[in-house]
Specification:
single chain, 278 residues, mainly alpha, MetI-like fold, 2 domains, transmembrane helix, Binding-protein-dependent transport systems inner membrane component
């Protein structure tokens, strides 16, 4: 009788707990879907209005479906030049940042030397600094040195903050680095360069790839620092901002979609490379 009484008393409690877990799980799913929808909504609008059959200067109202903007996405010469500038600057900035950031992150993760704490503090200060402060500082520096602003001042400005992101990413990768593998390679007769190329570099590669993708995305996306130090050079974000006063053409949506798809493919490629290496 006692056991039956206990089962009868616990049964409603168990059902209530299950009901609560079910509602809690449903609420968590709805919250997750809401956050994802909020994050993807601007991208969805960019993609959607690239197919808008717009008549006039403003591409803010849906007027029908068309593919004509995808047939000639480079019809606006200034916009194409701005896009080429953004892509070439992003490639140059990424290459320089990866080399400098990888060496810095490797050194900070491997050794403790005089000034290493100051270097780490400087890297985090660059990351934490507001863009407007960094843009103003770089602008003052170029003016003081008499450097004309243009394509290469954009490169220098973006390298200044991208190096910090790559260095921190590589340094974090170094925290999980197993040095016994290097010692094993040395015991088997490998020299320092062979050990670095065959053991150290492959183990750091996921961190280097992550840093490179981050540097490329930050470069092609940058507006504030580029605006201050661009001179007469136009990048894709600067051109789009200037076009808002006259109406953004649908080609901007098409090119923006291409950049987004390219970024997704690069990120997917990085994930695939990391999984293959495992």
């Amino acid at each position: 009788m006692t056991a039956v009484t206990v089962r009868e008393e616990t049964r409603p409690v168990t059902r209530t707990a299950r009901r609560r877990r079910r509602w809690r799980g449903l609420g968590l799913r709805l919250y997750t879907l809401g956050v994802l929808a909020w994050l993807m909504l601007p991208i969805a609008i960019i993609i959607l209005f690239g197919f808008n059959n717009v008549h006039g200067r403003f591409n803010y109202r849906w007027q029908g479906f068309t593919l004509r903007w995808y047939r000639h996405p480079f019809d606006i010469p200034d916009l194409t030049t701005a896009l080429v500038n953004s892509l070439t600057i992003a490639c140059i900035v990424t290459a320089i940042s990866v080399v400098m950031g990888t060496l810095a992150g490797f050194a900070l993760g491997r050794w403790r030397f005089l000034g290493s704490r100051a270097v780490e503090l400087t890297l985090f200060a660059v990351i934490a600094a507001s863009e407007i402060a960094m843009a103003t500082g770089l602008l003052s520096l170029f003016i003081s040195l008499g450097v004309p602003r243009g394509y290469w001042t954009i490169v220098i400005s973006q390298v200044t903050f991208d190096v910090a992101y790559v260095a921190v990413t590589v340094q974090a990768r170094m925290a999980a680095f197993d040095r016994s593998l290097e010692e094993a390679a040395r015991d088997l007769g490998a020299g320092p360069l062979v050990t670095f190329a065959r053991v150290t570099l492959p183990m750091l590669l996921p961190g280097i790839i992550a840093g490179a993708l981050l540097a490329f995305a930050l470069s092609i996306d940058d507006f504030v620092i580029t605006q201050f130090n661009a001179g007469k050079t136009l990048t894709f974000p600067l051109w789009v901002y200037g076009a808002t006063r006259l109406g953004i053409p649908p080609e901007v949506n098409v090119l923006g979609t291409m950049i987004f798809v390219g970024g997704v493919l690069l990120a997917a490629g990085g994930v695939v490379v990391q999984r293959i290496r495992r």
